[in-house]
Write a structure and sequence with these properties.
By secondary structure, this protein is of the alpha/beta class. Helix content is 51%, strand content 14%. Strand 5, helix 8 and strand 6 form a beta-alpha-beta unit.
């Protein structure tokens, strides 16, 4: 997390001031120690504003006990970081209690996104997730977007964000920095 925050601050200093960084949090990190204090210390040490940090947690962390998860999530949100549920819809979702969760974003699992090409039933699931998230003022990111058809479908449904090989494979820090600079140069 420290490395990610330091790198993001470096990119901000290089002129990419709106860049956010998302960091996956394991169940052990989430429940094993004082994560709020650790994140607060890292943000202070790196001088990164909390609003630029997104913590990605798995559904299982929240679904096992929404109340105890919220006891940890609410102080994190009070710091100003955003909370995202990663791989949403991969099997553990409790849609009926989603409104009780202290989260800002849902990341639709890539298996659901990729199945939209073959199944109208899966399209309905994506539609419901998008509608539900919008009503709950949550952002939605679709993972695993690999085709122009998937992108167009999600764009038509007003999905907030998309990620996947259609846009870029995973990149090293250096390659991502180069991509930022190239995109900035191309837009001038």
């Amino acid at each position: 997390m420290r490395t990610a925050c330091l790198q993001t601050k470096e990119w901000h200093n290089a002129g990419f001031k709106s860049l956010h960084i998302a960091v996956n949090i394991s169940p052990r990190q989430f429940q094993g120690y004082d994560i709020e204090r650790a994140i607060k210390n890292i943000l202070e040490e790196t001088n990164l504003e909390a609003k630029f940090l997104v913590l990605e947690i798995t559904e299982t962390i929240v679904v096992e006990s929404i109340d105890s998860a919220n006891d940890i999530l609410k102080p994190l949100k009070n710091l100003g970081v955003a909370i995202s549920i990663d791989d949403f819809g991969s099997g553990y979702s409790n849609f009926s209690r989603l409104n009780e969760m202290s989260i800002d974003e849902i990341k639709i699992d890539k298996s659901i996104v990729q199945a939209t090409a073959d199944s109208t039933d899966t399209m309905v699931i994506v539609d419901v997730i998008l509608m539900m998230a919008k009503k709950l003022n949550m952002t939605v990111t679709a993972e695993g977007v690999e085709t122009a058809e998937q992108r167009e479908y999600l764009k038509e449904k007003e999905c907030n964000n998309m990620q996947g090989y259609l846009f870029s494979p995973p990149l090293t820090t250096e390659k991502f920095g180069e991509m930022l600079k190239n995109n900035a140069a191309a837009s001038k």
